[in-house]
Known about the structure:
The chain is mainly alpha-helical. It is 51% helix and 11% strand.
Amino acid sequence: MDRPSIKNMFEGKESRYSLVVAVAKRAREIVNEADLNGDILEEKAVNLAIKDFKDGKYCIFMSKSKENHISG
């Protein structure tokens, strides 16, 4: 498995906590989408979520109220 550098993924983020929460939220989205489509995931949802952030498909931004949001 390709292990992306947390340091590189962490650049520009508020905290490691924000990154962990965002990856977990994206992983849940991936699982829900697969369930709705009747797909079987061949790779773990967390690994797919990490790839999405590493590849820049999704990013983290902080709102004025400091809530975590993901966008893709």
